[in-house]
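Field reference: sequence -> structure
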Amino acid sequence: MNPKVDAYFSKVEKWQKELEKLRMILLDCMLTEELKWGAPCYTFRKSNIAIIGGLKEYCVLSFFKGALLNDANGILVKPGDNTQSARVIPFTKVREIVEMEPILKAYIFEAIEVEKAGLKVDFKEKTALIFPEELQRKLDENPAFKRAFHALTPGRQRAYNLYFSAPKQSKTRDSRIEKCMQQILNGKGLNDW
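Structure field:
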């Protein structure tokens, strides 16, 4: 057990029992526990295997290379339309986790074997970002905003672009861009705190 992760659990309000049970299962699989991205992360020989966390509707056990797992039980879920590698297993009750413990351990050990074998996810080639006209206009009008946006990592640029492009109405796209401008100027990604 990692003291930094203990501190994380001392602050968790929702899903605490579920996350603690997932923690015990992961530790029982001889993974190293670390705190990464503000959440308990489990590694094998310094390679990320899984991470756990609580969301609004459920908590998850997330596998970094879940797309490479066999998923014989059909329990892995793609967390978003644009996710290529990660897969999650959502939970709402400790009982679900307890009942699935042998299956979860099998998936964890399979994820370790994937890492040992050096397997890599075959990512789709990323195409150049096509900005919505509202974003392109803001970038053209504001050189500081343009510099800040292009200074973001490609993943952060992509996340903002997806977020800005999603609404059907132009005024909603404009509103989202306006609300995020300062965060972008501060060099922060869409989900950075």
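Note: The mean pLDDT is 92.
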